[in-house]
Each structure stands twice: as C-alpha cells, then as structure tokens.
Amino acid sequence: MSPVEMLFANERSSSTFEEIPVIDFSNANSTDPIVRRALADQMRDACVNVGFFYIKNHGIPEPVIEKTVDSAKEFFKLPLETKMELDIHKTPNFKGYTALLGENTNPENRGDMHEGFDIGWSDEEAPGYTGAARTEGAMSGGNVWPDEKLLPEFKGKVLQYYHAAIDLGQTLFRLFALALDLPENFFDDKTTKPAAIMRLLYYPPQTGVVDDRVIGIGAHTDYECFTILWQDPSVQALQVLNADGKWIDAVPIPGTVVLNIGDQLARWTNDVFKSTMHRAVNRSGVERYSIPLFFGTDYEVKLEALPSCVSDDNPPKYEVVTAGEYVQSRLEATYAHSKKP
Fold this sequence. Notes:
Layout: H1 3-9, E1 22-24, H2 33-49, E2 52-56, H3 62-76, H4 80-84, E3 96-98, E4 111-112, E5 115-119, H5 154-179, E6 196-203, E7 214-215, E8 217-220, E9 226-231, E10 238-241, E11 247-249, E12 256-261, H6 263-268, E13 278-280, E14 288-295, E15 302-303, E16 321-322, H7 323-335
Parallel strand pairs: 1-2, 4-7
Antiparallel strand pairs: 2-12, 3-5, 5-6, 6-14, 8-13, 9-12, 9-14, 10-11, 10-13, 15-16
C-alpha cells in the first residue's frame, strides 16, 4: 500500500454523504504549520469522501462580490446582438459570450439553460505581473470585453473579483499540497500563469412545461483542478450526486463559496480525490446568477499521477496529457453542438 493509500485508508467512506461540509478558512494563512496542517486534514477528508465543501471566511471582500454581480446583471441585460459580438466561438481559447442553450455539458441533454461570459488569465491584466507572456500552446490568447462605452466599469470590477479569487486559489493549492503530504510549495512552479477560467453565469427563470433534458447546467464534472463557486444566496440550484445516485442540494450559505474538486486534480491523485458529478437546476421561477472560477495549472504542465497515489494495486488510471490539452478537448466537446459548420 502506498503512503497516500495508507493515509486515506482509515478515512474513506462509501461517499453516500447527505450533506456538504463547511470549512472555516480563518487560519488558512496562519504562520503556525500545525494550524495549517489541521485545516489541510479537514480538506483532505472532504476531498476523499465528498469532493465538495463550503468555505467560510474565504477572504474575497463582499463589496467586490456585489460589484461583480451587479456588473454581470448589466452585461446580460444587453441586447443579444451586442452580446453576440463577443461570441465564444469567435475565439480559439473559448473566451467571451455563450448564448442561451449554447453549451451542453451533458450530451444526453438538449442544451444548458443559461447564458455565460468567460474570461481567463491574461498577463497584461494581472496586477504587478512581470513574467513572460504566454503566446502559444493550447488555450493561449487574451480575453475579450464589452465596449467600454456601454459598460465603462465592467472590466475593472470583474477583474477585481477574478484576482481576489486567484489569491484564494493559490492558498488552496498550498493546502492541497499539505493534504497530499507533499511539500507546501509543490504547486508553486506549476501555477505561475494559472489556467483559471472564470464565468459569469445567468440562469433565466425556467417556467412552463418541465423538460428534464433542458436544465440550468447538465450533470457533469469540472475540467480543472478545482472550482471556486459563488452562488446566489437566495436561489437553490446546485446539486451534488452521492454514491447512491441521490442528488444532494448544495444549499446556498450566505458568506461562503463552494469548492469542488475537478478532473485534473482527480487525475493527478489517481482518483484519491473525488471529482464529483453535479448539476444546476433552477426551477425557482426567478432568475439566478453564479460565478464559478475553474482553477487549473499552467497549460504546459503534464497531468501525471503522483507517485504517492500509485501502487501495484492501484496503477495509473489515465494517459498523461498536458493540462491545456485536456481542458481544450473537454471544451471542444461541450460547445460542439452549437458551433456553426
């Protein structure tokens, strides 16, 4: 049995969880290594058995969240033809606007009942960034933005939230390293230009005849290492699938964000950490907004199973690919149905 298997063997459950744990991040940047390790242990338990947890005291200022949500509302109220000028299919790196039903995360469905606006890491937009710009490779390229004459403060407000969430993501990577019994800086040189895709999402009220093949977002797992999700505190929509096939509501908790493990970290840990199936179903009769930030590694990093997560009884389960190749292949499949021939 490998060191990590020994580490997790006594704590792994059947994953028939009925609720999602809440973890307090007040001490996430404590100078006491014992305190940080205790927090990492809580995360480890949640990652192995659920794949989801809430974070309270996450450090993203509430006024920054409010301004970003207000900006999203202004953007999605623009005329469709204006938003379509930023059509995500016009970019090679999947940045820009996604129209209603333009995405289909579950191939068995007819399309996802939401609109979206995607941005990612851009060297020239990063505060104080002095590294070399990424100009080639999978998913390379800059962001697209609405006309400043229409939404003069949109870019600044959205980027303020984006980089606050990036800071939280960098803290999370250090804690994930501890949770895997790795050096705390293990991920530092793998996230120098973090492949962090952020989405502003708008779910219109879904009324009338219920079509179970058209929901907010179909059942799926996320593509990157982990997702930091702000969800509308007044509208229940997110659901998480447990091992018994039961959908568990991720009830909005004011003042928290939701963290879930994605496929990249699951592949890296050889499925020691769970990338759990989830969906969003907005049958509330009112509109809903959310802001997920999908945090991955630099796109050229190889997703190769960690030696501590591999043994004779648990050999590597996945082919080795780069992070960029993996994300690009998943996005191409997701948007294939709405791409014009």
